[in-house]
UniProtKB/TrEMBL annotation:
Boundaries of every ABC transporter domain copy: 5-233
UniProt xrefs under PROSITE patterns: ABC_TRANSPORTER_1, ABC_TRANSPORTER_2
Signal sequence, renumbered to the chain: none
Source domain of life: Bacteria
InterPro entries: AAA+_ATPase, ABC_transporter-like_ATP-bd, ABC_transporter-like_CS, ABC_transporter_ATP-binding, DrrA, P-loop_NTPase
Species in which this protein is naturally found: Paractinoplanes hotanensis
UniProt keywords, alphabetically: Antibiotic resistance, ATP-binding, Cell membrane, Membrane, Nucleotide-binding, Translocase, Transport
Localisation: Cell membrane
Protein name, UniProt field: ATP-binding cassette domain-containing protein
Length: 311
């Protein structure tokens, strides 16, 4: 696999406020890379530098093999960017917005390309209406459709689903998966942990201008202790007995639950259930928990991710 994006020692400050403090990352071609971080972590600044919209103070950035500072034009020819605040013109129709992009990119077969995009994004009917009548989800879709007019091989999606309802979010996820299947490389910023988990091949966690962890979602989750089995009992007697049985377990007397550490694979669960059975203990409820990116963020930054939306 070749790399679509290579970033090394990227630094950016606004005045004396250091926003990116030496960032290294590599995005393989044809993958989804997610930059995850709370508000103000520096995600948009990173996208702006990588997409040639802003100059870095230091470090090197190569996109599609081109240096973003020296070969701006070549980079721009291969990328598409959709922002948090859609770059659509409110006072034009969806179709007219797409036409503008087609003209800008000198697309030979503009009408056909636009027709296909409107269909793909389920905007055929809305295409003749002014954008100021669109919902948030429709705007995001139009914004992405506009990006695709130029047929980019690398797409930057800056918080593509922030503020969208769950259904529109899932539609956007499906579109992102389709783009990936077509071989497009996707650089996605998000503050939604589940979004990174669902879509990304690799995740980098950005916190206060530094990448504090990088890996596949599973690799990141494995770094964090927290796998456990949760048992709920009918009464305190059974809870007492079970707590004595399982070393290292922690109990919640009010909820009548016991948290037993373990990796939750079938063998360890079988042993645990046998132990309950052999001791004539019955649990009313049983569930296996593995850490999610939420736990990862907490473990890495030492802060609860109050600013990070976890749904
Ligand atoms: N042009 C600018 N001038 C001064 N400060 C800026 C500028 N752009 C961004 N910042 C500051 O840099 C920090 C990082 O901003 P950035 O927009 O990159 O964060 P973010 O992770 O994308 O967060 P959000 O989710 O809020 O967009 C913030 O503290 C922001 O106030």
């Amino acid at each position: 696999m070749s790399s679509a994006i290579e970033v090394s020692g990227l630094r950016k400050a606004f005045g004396d406020k250091v926003v990116l403090d030496g960032i290294d990352l590599v995005v393989e071609a044809g993958t989804v890379f997610s930059l995850l971080g709370p508000n103000g972590a520096g995600k948009t600044t990173t996208v702006n530098v990588l997409a040639t919209l802003m100059k870095a103070d230091g470090g090197s950035v190569r996109v599609a093999g081109h240096d973003v500072a020296a070969e701006t034009k070549a980079v721009r020819a291969t990328i598409g960017v959709t922002g948090q605040f859609a770059a659509v013109d409110e006072l034009l129709t969806g179709q007219e917005n797409l036409q503008l992009m087609a003209d800008l990119h000198r697309v030979a077969d503009g009408r056909r390309v636009i027709g296909r995009l409107l269909e793909r994004f389920d905007l055929v009917e809305a295409g003749t209406e002014l954008v100021n009548s669109y919902s948030g989800g429709m705007r995001r879709k139009l914004d992405l459709a506009m990006t695709l007019v130029g047929d980019p091989s690398i797409i930057f999606l800056d918080e593509p689903t922030t503020g969208l309802d769950p259904r529109s979010r899932r539609t956007m996820w499906d579109i992102i998966r389709e783009l990936l299947a077509e071989g497009v490389t996707i650089f996605l910023t998000t503050q939604y942990l589940e979004e990174a988990d669902q879509l990304a091949d690799r995740v980098a966690v950005l916190d206060q201008g530094r990448i504090v962890a990088q890996g596949t979602p599973d690799e990141l989750k494995r770094q964090v202790p927290g796998s456990h089995v949760r048992l709920r009992f009918a009464g305190l007697g059974d809870l007492d007995a079970a707590a004595r049985l399982f070393a290292g377990s922690t109990r919640d007397d009010e909820a009548l639950t016991l948290r037993v550490p373990g990796d939750g694979d079938t063998e360890s669960v079988r042993i645990l259930l046998n132990q309950l059975h052999d001791n004539a203990l019955h649990a009313d409820d049983f569930s296996v928990h593995t850490p999610d990116l939420d736990d990862v963020f907490l473990a890495l930054t030492g802060r609860p991710n109050a600013e990070v939306v976890t749904k």
